Amino acid sequence: MSVQSNDQAGGLTGIQTSDQPLGRDDLARLVARDIKPGSFVNLGIGQPTLVSNYLEPEQNITLHTENGMLGMGPVATGDQIDGDLINAGKIPVTELPGASYFHHADSFAIMRGGHLDICVLGAFQVSATGDLANWHTGAPDAIPAVGGAMDLATGAKDVFVMMTLLTREGVSKLVEACTYPLTGIGCVTRVYTDKAVFLTGPGGVQVRETFGCTLEELQKMVPVPLQAASAVAS
Amino acid sequence: MLNFLESVNEAVAGIKDGSTVMIGGFGNAGQPFELIDALMDCGATDLTVVNNNAGQGDQGLALLIKEGRVRKMICSFPRQSDSWHFDAKFHAGEIELELVPQGNLAERIRAAGAGIGGFFTPTGYGTMLAEGKETRILDGRGQVFETPIHADVALIKAFQADGKGNLVYRKTARNFGPIMAAAAKHTVVQVSEIVPTGGLDPEVIVTPGIYVNSIVKVA
Known about the structure:
Number of strands of chain B: 12
Number of strands of chain A: 14
CATH topology of chain B: Glutaconate Coenzyme A-transferase
Order of helices and strands of chain B: EHEHEHEHEHEEEEEHEE
Structural class of chain B: alpha/beta
Shape of chain A: globular
Largest sheet of chain B: 9 strands, mixed
Largest sheet of chain A: 11 strands, mixed
Distance between the termini of chain B: 24 Å
CATH class of chain B: Alpha Beta
Number of helices of chain B: 6
Oligomer: heterodimer
Number of domains of chain B: 1
Structural class of chain A: alpha/beta
CATH topology of chain A: Glutaconate Coenzyme A-transferase
């Protein structure tokens, strides 16, 4: 059943799952909970890295890092620090039992070849049809740096975005069409924000759940038509 | 022909002005600092350098850029919190940048070593990094034609070499080493240890010695 934003409030209460906006850690916990057991996952630098703090051992998730490793463990501390063992953000990390190393072309073949189940990325903007902009502001004096963002966006089976819904100026980052340079076209399947979880795709934007606002209030913040997800996706 | 050399200076002595030089490493992991320092000393200039980044801090590749020896960088991620030497050259218009998505960079290097004339990849399709490039719809997806990156010289770092030039690496310091070794006309490797021929298990060798020209042990 699809619920439009102008329906009675009573029809919307099911999707408001928190009476407060979610903080970064709560959002990371939510993303971690949504990752299916046994998945191979790449977490982008920045906010997505927080997700690793909430993955449970029984989920049996294998983390991939673009610089040539599967089975990446937590950040290294003290005697664990080894300059030859770093993550994509160039932070020293650890290896878990069963880890493997491979060269860069193989690492990106893992992405491009569709072998990763999920990647979680930050974003400047996501469009209603799942276009992603997350690598370049396009400012004339900015030095562009893309890294592995385009490969991840294009290659992973599912691309989850984690971001605040609004910029500091209060402008929605979920947009009709991206104005920043694109990272990938139609690649984002889910957007986790402090105010709602959105499902994006060719059919437009569905709202899976809201935090601290009703769907009607959410619609006022976002310049694309929203509808409640017909069934709660797992 | 495989040579075991005594010094890093000897190892880079043949690098000419205007060369394309691949330098291994992702950040500092796998970056052959001693070979880069020797490249500084040898005076070669007007270089095109292929590396994932564009130098960090005040060492290695960053110094080569600072000294104006690099005409062009081919890389995926030049902008870092401590990439001030590249930033300054870029803003001054004194260095050319070819920005390549990291997987395309790796695959273009791999293609060169594997004798591939080019390939179509979905990465970058519809973005500004594919502007001006040939595209096709293949398997229902937009794809971009990318060409191989060849080099005159590769400078890489490995953990161990045996007497045949076979190499093994350490952890994520492997990164671009194996594909750069294959893509360059002349590959120079700095290693931490040299073991006798037969001292490495053939089943675990990552780079076969056929790709290696010069080896120098760096303490």
